[in-house]
Design brief:
Shape: globular
Number of helices: 16
CATH architecture of the largest domain: Alpha-Beta Complex
Radius of gyration: 24 Å
CATH topology of the largest domain: Adenine-n6-DNA-methyltransferase TaqI, Chain A, domain 2
CATH class of the largest domain: Alpha Beta
Strand order of the largest sheet: 2-8-5-6
Oligomer: single chain
Distance between the termini: 12 Å
């Protein structure tokens, strides 16, 4: 147990008796100051610090201006969640609520619930976007001594997390108030170090931007290679089912017979040969390691393994900074045998999200995910891991098929493995599969490079700053 004392005259934030605050302000900050690192309040180097729109703005999934959720802000990147999001608001609403507007290179940081996740907003990466009150935007002054990229790198580092924890308030619902953000002290190290971190972070984001563009290109190629138009199938708000069909399917749920899902599957089978997922891939369930083993980022040891839950699939890959980490002995005991190019598919809670492992991923999968690996029969049909991933990422194929077979156990949606095996993957022509495979392969090489750079930034930050008393 670490012990330290604070004099009454040093109490701050209304005599706030929170040990983490004083551990940072009295111990870590002073230790780094002795190394020549100065600190400056964010409000002194910012032209604006605000939060997003407080009013409710209706969302939709069709189109308009992107309107972010707090959960979209991950460490260093902005996540696009095709399963959970209604990601748009009408352009007229966007214009009517200027408080939600953000500018290129604003720092976005989550301030309610899961707090302190941050990313630099780039219009060419996200497009025009707005933010609600759960996100704060920080706009640096032109003469700021640090960069937006350096600040976000600091905020996701171990010392940055310790710093953020020290100014977070709230019991059940955590809050990082605008007042505390304005008073938040940013370290100002040597210019050479700032420039190095900035360049590394910018390079990493360029790899991510390229990767997402390549996946989007592969998805468009997939759709254009189909001999049918999936968007031609319309949603019907009423339909009838013969009682014999209920008995045959052994699923008394409306989604199982939803005409949108049924007719989409029928259209694909009409124009393409299809393969059942269980016939072309090995399927292995994840494990529940036990919450008593969870460690948060600031408490993790160097060898601890990221524990990936359904909420940790970020832009088609496991999050490099998930909520929890697990000791390596548990990783060895579970023997999940995860490898590069393994496909991840969520089956509990948030059903139908898909991702793929890169060479930089060493993870433990929770019981809410399955690992898919193309088997011999799949390879004989010229199915590659990249093609299988891409097909499952198409909403009308992976998501529709999963939701059609999902049941709700008490309150949690659940896709059983035997139903997962029934998902049908269409086979398109060999040349299109080859092109899709190459595009996706290059995308995940870029994603691996981004993660490698983020790990390098993490090592640089821990080497530069003192992070223990």
């Amino acid at each position: 147990m670490l012990e330290f004392s604070v004099s009454v005259s040093d109490l701050e934030f209304g005599s706030r008796l929170v040990p983490s605050f004083y551990y940072f302000s009295q111990i870590l900050k002073n230790k780094n100051r002795k190394k020549g690192i100065e600190y400056i309040n964010l409000e002194r180097i910012s032209s604006e610090i605000s939060d997003g729109e407080h009013s409710h703005i209706p969302r939709n999934s069709k189109g308009g201006v992107r309107y972010l959720y707090g959960r979209n802000i991950k460490e260093g990147v902005i996540n696009f969640d095709p399963v959970s999001d209604d990601p748009y608001i009408d352009e007229s609403d966007y214009k009517a609520f200027p408080r939600c507007h953000i500018r290129d290179r604003d720092i976005l940081i989550t301030i309610y619930g899961t707090i302190g996740k941050s990313a630099v907003y780039h219009r060419d990466y996200v497009g025009t976007a707005g933010i609600p009150r759960h996100i704060s935007n920080i706009r640096l002054s032109k003469d700021a001594p640090v960069t937006a990229e350096f600040i976000t790198a600091y905020l996701r580092s171990k010392i940055g997390k310790l710093h953020l924890d020290s100014v977070t308030t709230g019991n059940i619902q955590q809050l990082l108030s605008l007042k505390n953000i304005r008073k938040f002290e940013i370290p100002v190290p040597e210019r050479e170090f700032i420039d190095r971190i900035t360049l590394l972070d910018q390079t990493a984001l360029q790899y991510e931007t390229t990767a997402l563009a390549l996946i989007d290109k592969a998805q468009r190629l997939f759709r254009s290679s189909l001999r049918c138009d999936l968007s031609s199938v319309r949603k019907e708000f009423s339909f009838s089912v013969p009682s014999a069909s209920l008995t045959e399917a052994n699923m008394w749920t409306s989604n199982c017979f939803n005409s949108l899902y049924v007719n989409t599957a029928a259209l694909l089978k009409q124009h393409h040969q299809v393969c059942r997922l269980g016939d072309i891939a090995h399927i292995k369930n994840g494990d529940e390691a036990g919450s008593d083993l969870y460690k948060q980022y600031v408490d993790r040891d160097a060898g601890d393994i990221p524990f990936i839950r359904t909420s940790d699939i970020v832009n088609y890959e496991p999050d490099l900074y998930p909520d929890y980490y697990i000791p390596p002995l548990v990783y060895e005991a579970l023997g999940q045998d995860t490898r590069e190019k393994d496909i991840l598919f969520t089956k509990d809670g948030k059903v139908g999200a898909v991702g793929m492992l890169t060479a930089e991923d060493k993870v433990i999968l929770s019981s809410g995910l399955v690992r898919l690996r193309v088997n011999r029969a799949g390879r004989a049909k010229k199915i590659t891991p990249e093609y299988l991933f891409l097909a499952l990422s198409i909403r009308e194929i992976g998501y529709y098929a999963a939701i059609r077979r999902t049941v709700v156990a008490s309150t949690i949606p659940h896709l059983r493995e035997e139903r997962l095996r029934e998902i049908e993957i269409p086979l398109i022509d060999d040349e299109a599969i080859r092109e899709i495979t190459e595009s996706v392969r290059t995308a995940f090489l870029n994603k691996a490079e981004r993660k490698r750079i983020y790990k390098e930034i993490e090592r640089e930050m821990e080497k530069y700053f003192s992070i223990s008393g």
